[in-house]
Amino acid sequence: MVELCTVTDTLGRKVIRLSAVEAESIAKNLGNKICQMVLSRFLERAKLKQYEIDDEDEDIMDAPDLGMLCAIAQHEAALNVIRSLGGLHALSLVAAEGNLSAMAALKKACETDASVLLEGDAHEVILKIYASDQDELPWKSDDQLSQQVEGAAFELLARLCTKTAKGRNAVAKSESCEGCVERAMEIITELSGFVEETEDDGAESGDDDALFAESDDDEPPPPAAPPAPMPPPSAPGA
Question: In which residue ranges is the amino acid composition biased (Acidic residues) (predicted)?
């Protein structure tokens, strides 16, 4: 089924394209199965890591069920079905792997009610993005993708904290909250440092202008014009 829904986009990438009707139909009939498959993949990977077994031959993000879940979740009606099945937790796991489509789906899910991120502890998965032991995630080595993923995650958490007191309390009580705050402070410090550096450069430029102005004042005055020649003496008897 995944192959039937896969097309090649303008950049030559293979993507799953579904209409709203197709997405809703798949969500109703196979949504629960797809979510369970996604959760099973992450659970299996966690077990392998626990026993220090690396499965380098398989990238979890290449799994067809993950791609199908993200494709379904791009449509509002299908996303509501996935949510009713408890699928936001599975979607948040995919988002934490750096999948921007999953992040976009989570944003759409909490547009009207940010507290949906509390379902299945989806907010905990988002918070763990900033944990120090998550530095091994592949997307963190890509500066541009890292900025996009972290920015989207901060936006989700901001919505949750500002829209509901319950969400704010849940984030504050999370064990991963400290790592999130530390990362936020790092970003703020980096941005403020950039602003200060820019201001310092401007001040230095102004000082240079002042120095040049002073040097102009110190230049010796131009030499005085030579005196005008005396008129020739008048002829006698003139």
Answer: 196-220
Least confident window among 80-89, 116-125, 169-178, 203-212: 203-212
Instruction: Please report whether residue 51 resides in a domain.
Output: yes
Alpha helix stretches (DSSP H) within the chain: 20-50, 64-72, 76-84, 88-96, 100-109, 122-127, 143-163, 165-173, 177-218
Find, among 106, 132, 108, the residue nearest to 119 by Cα. Answer: 106
In a domain, 211, yes or no: no
Q: Give the burial class of 203: count Cβ atoms within 10 A of its Cβ; 0-12 exposed, 13-18 middle, 19 or more buried.
A: exposed
Please indicate, yes or no, if residue 189 is contained in any of the structural domains.
yes
The predicted model gives 80-87 an average pLDDT of: 94
The DSSP code for 6 is: E
Q: Which residues contact 156 (CB under 8 A, 6 or more apart)?
A: 103, 106, 107, 110, 117, 123, 126
pLDDT at residue 90 in the model: 95
